[in-house]
Design goal:
By secondary structure, the chain is α/β, with parallel strands linked by helices. Helix content is 41%, strand content 17%. The protein folds into two domains: 178 residues, Glycogen Phosphorylase B (Rossmann fold, 3-Layer(aba) Sandwich); 180 residues, Rossmann fold.
Length: 366
Amino acid sequence: MKKVAIIVQTAAPYRDRIIETYINNTNDKIFTDIYLINTQEKSMHPEWEYTSPLNFKNLREKEPIKTFYGTLDFEIIKKLIRGGYDSILISGWFPATSLIIELYCIIFNKRFSVMLDSVEINKKTRTLAHLILNKAYSIFVPGNMSKNFLISEGVPENKIYKGIYTNDNEKIYNIIESKKIERNHIRDQYGLKENDFCFLFVGKLIPTRRIGNLLKAIDRQTEVSKYLIVGDGPDLELVNDFAIDHSNVIHLSSVPLENLHELYAIADAYIHPGKEPFSLALVEAAIAGLPIVSTDEVGAAYDVIKQNQNGIIVPFDSVSELTIAIERVRKGEMNINAIEKEQKILTNQYNIKWAAEQLEKVLDVE
């Protein structure tokens, strides 16, 4: 029986279900070990209150060492070296644990693949990054933006597979549709009236999300809409200060994952004013059948938006273009047929089953 190892940095619902499905599909011919670099408490989204269904191989008997390049876990490295794996899938070229394993694989000619959402490479680590990209057997990315970036860096297209960030889109669709039945009741809980047109944003309130640009665009609107901003972070003060004189802006602190879906059910449109390597929030908006406004620095925009049909992609940091796009969506200029078409594609084609099949191609050990 073949053996593979998968190393993830954090437990995450958009990746764990893919791995779980892959294991279920291949457990009669492939033995799979999963290693977790960071504890679930150190997840990127602790507010989700998420527990992984995966059984992680490492016991974390000793606390990993903190280095300039991130977490260094000798337990994982030791188990990987002794494991006799036919293929290893590694999360990112950093932190240090990933880097050491990648260098080990390169030096001893072991097959490895990497999971990346990168759309840029730090100048200081460029040479090292290109060495890893060149030696990797395959690369697993979220979507088109990461894929096109890697191609521009000289990575052959046939080494790149999409789908590493894929939620259970079918399940999410069904939850959202069920919540739409209670739409007015749920809206009332959040201070929204039945006829209010509501734009939704969900994410960390950090500088790269450019919440300040959204607030400026809101201030320039001629028609009043509601704006439901969900999340916490250093730019929360901007939102709170703005909301003092703008009652149409509603802020919610970060909520558990299971409570997020109803927010998409009560919204009329989704907006992402900043930058992000992918953005599963954008994907969920498309699954919910919402028209979307996004900048050209949000990776998922290139996977779920058909320009001027089911949404609008505007230049990053252009408040004027963002303002116009909000106005156009508010006026109902998007194509309902295009919105429904994208909704069906994400639900029926780009789902967990598809992503697990992609993972099988990435590891390629049959």
